[in-house]
Amino acid sequence: MIKQEQMQVVNQQQIATNIFELTLIGQLVLDMKQPGQFVHLRVSDQMEPLLRRPISISSIDKETLEFSMIYRADGRGTTLLSEKKPGDQVDVLGPLGNGFPIEKIEAGQTALLVGGGIGVPPLYELSKRLVEKGVKPIHVLGFQSKDVVFYERQFQELGETHIVTVDGSHGHKGFVTNALEILEDDFAVYYSCGPTPMLSALEKMYPDKKGYLSFEQRMGCGIGACFACVCETTEETEADYVKVCSDGPVFQSGVVRV
Amino acid sequence: MNRLAVELPGLSLKNPIMPASGCFGFGKEYAKLYNLSQLGAIMIKATTLETRLGNPTPRVAETPAGMLNAIGLQNPGLTKVMENELPWLEQYDVPIIANVAGTLTEDYVAVAKSISQAPNVHALELNISCPNVKQGGITFGTDPVVAEELTRAVKEASSVPVYVKLSPNVTNVNEIAKAVEAGGADGITMINTLLGMRLDTRTGRPVIANVTGGLSGPAIKPVALRMVYDVAKQVSIPIIGMGGISTIDDVIDFLSAGASAVAVGTANFVDPFVCPNLIEQLPEKLDELGYKTVSEIVGRSHRL
Fold first, then answer.
1. B79 touches chain A (CB under 8 A)
2. Considering its fold, how many domains does chain A have in total?
3. A224 and chain B in contact, CB less than 8 A
4. What domain range includes position A7?
5. Which spans in B124-220 are helix H?
6. Which of A5, A29, A48, A241 sits between 20 and 30 A of B136, alpha carbons compared?
7. Could you give the residue numbers annotated as active site of B?
8. A51 closest CB neighbour out of B53, B62, B71
9. Are B29 and A224 within 8 A, CB to CB?
10. Do A40 and A23 have their domain in common?
């Protein structure tokens, strides 16, 4: 169920260049069902910036009622968000969207998790859930350069982790696809979040594998009413279009035209 | 007596607050958040004869105290709206105002004829002001002669009262308002969005794929308020006012300027509970200002 709540900041810290981790506490956490869902935040109670900001959930703790988000402060809204301090309130609408289905993989199987840049965060909660279920995760995480790499240790604690940077300043050099070419593809399901060209490349690399991809699109309402975030679908899909906010953001591979 | 009630052609509103067309879909998403029967009415998303997929994305961009959109009238088309959306809305005790759009006069007439027969559609909102489609839309709303003729044609086809939604993107909005009144309009809804654009300062490229979009949100309130105030002096048919309404003071301002009811658009995206919140705040605000009913406050700025 979608709720609106004034949640309190528990922690805010910079974890890489312009990358922040923000933890909030409140009852809304109890409604968070799936990894890969997102929240829609008001970063200010002023008229500027006006719209909410969709931010993916990176970890959920129902016992402490806390959840975390990892985001890049690169616009006015996310910069204001990065200035929130413990004790401050944030207006949260959520949880929104459909996340990664963990029921599509069995205990004992291997999952490939591929993240690109600020698409990496939702894979963290996903990986934790998969590990709890007895699934073996392999993480391939791509970043621009060493200074924006985050959560390398946290992912390593959950399973095999390969870091890739475009400039080669950390881990493998190149794109995640370059690293994937040298990995064996003995996994049952792949899950991914990141830039659309990366998602498209994955679909081409693994046409016979079951995959779940999380898409990004500019949003208005975040709940499916405004038709801002629609994506075209492929011929195989029954619907003419899908909305990233309410039908997604996670879709099975082959649904969205990329 | 319900002090918030408003009587308009075709519409017995339990309160003067309704979501604006295009900002509320066909109600399903907001129905998950609150009971839609609380609303004065619902202006559903523009319906065209055929299915429309709208414009390429990005379709929205934030601007200071506002937003630009160029959705491009995406909707499932008349048949699906009649078969799925309107029957679903019948479970709520709320009158529906169906926004009607098209490319040619015949399209408008065909949609109006059919959709006005749905049992819960109590009025039409003739969309002659969408700035985001290449044909139809705003092209009907910027020429008084064309606007009058279209209004007359739709009025003949419709079995419920017809409100015409005016564009602010004209030199003289009064002329258009008088023309649609002469064409037989039962009411006016105003304003649609103001045509605008935003550039990516680094590259110089438009942020919206359609290049231009319609500006909405608090930024446009002064323009909308001025136009409602002016048109209220020129016509004798009622006005439903809209344009940047997000607070109870905004509601009062539009009513004072001459609107008999108001619609809330962009504010639904900022606070999805804004409509029920404003409805709840309205009686208290009337008390504070010393008025018993909503009707007393309508047009008071003209009586000072």
1. no
2. 2
3. yes
4. 3-96
5. 138-141, 144-157, 173-182
6. A241
7. 130
8. B62
9. yes
10. yes
